[in-house]
Design brief:
Blueprint (H helix, E strand, L loop, with lengths): L27 H16 L18 E6 L4 H9 L6 H8 L11 E8 L2 H8 L7 H8 L1 H18 L4 E2 L9 E4 L3 E4 L3 H7 L3 E3 L5 E3 L5 E8 L18 H4 L5 H5 L5 E2 L2 E2 L1 H19 L25 H4 L33 E2 L2 E2 L8
Antiparallel strand pairs: 1-2, 2-8, 3-8, 4-5, 6-7, 9-10, 11-12
Length: 359
Amino acid sequence: MPEQDRPSASSATFQEAPGGVTDAGPDDAHLKAALEEEAALFEGSDDNASPRDGERLYARPFFGYASADDPAWQSVKADVGDSSWTPLEAFLEALPESGATASGLTVVSAVLPVTARTAADQAASDCLPSERWLVSRHFHSLAVDGLARRLASRLGSLGHESMAPDQAPGFKTLPHPRYLFTSKWSQRHAAWAAGLGTFGLSEGLITASGIAHRLTSVIVRARLTPTPRTYAGFRDWCLFFSSGKCGECVRRCPAGAISPDGHDKALCREYMSRTVKPWAAGRFPDMEGAYACGLCQSRVPCASRAPVARAWRLRPVGLDASGAPDASKSARTPWRPTAGFWPGLRQGGRPLSRKKGPA
């Protein structure tokens, strides 16, 4: 179907289906094919074009699927907190009169990888982000929101109510005791539940295309076959947590915001506020308020692939009835660093140091 005949990304993010679609029946074939077609159209569309020069912001998206009644969502609540929506809660927030049930909903999570040119430029950068990375970050909402609207509109045109959780009326960002801040709907946790990957030491999500990407999702009133999760926990695809043979994201971070304890968002934000924003304002005045870093997502083993994913593909693993990872289904037990491991880590024969950016 020609691009001009596709539903516009400017149409509503919440799509009510004509005729009252029920929760019954698997509907994989034509819905998944439609989503793949929409991903291909999106890649070359205006929704994925930089307003500065028209260059593509992201590569072609790919998808993972999770049932709304999957016990994994209880694991997400346990990790993020009770304020985190389940798929059913998010869906009813936008479409309260739908009468939907969890068994009839599917979360469609989408990964938008950075382009090869953006990845290459960023890998060549130190202390400050590359121009392409800064551009893709500054205009990322145009792409991710545009893709979500396209998917919801396409699904609605096929007779299935759908919505984008981060566009729902009650969506908001909240303070968090461990993560500093979180939201009512975590795109990374949704992608984890949808079998797309696990968290790294830097708290980015390591997918089959790596950690350099953006995420979005829609919830559709249809039963689609879930993507198998080939991991048991939240960090199984991270080399540091699976074998202790990494820590490259720590070396790449100019703010010293990544450590064995994870990602210090306060330090990260301070570096971007005090260093990156003033630099970007002087160099790129046409992008007011632009900021980004993302060095921890480039020139690292997980930049463009999941380096330990193959080890976890011995067989899909799952969760017990409470939503906790079921150790009996795990292909192996992830390695955990001992107290003496980190101080002994070396870089070029020297003790590991954290490079500081320009003052």
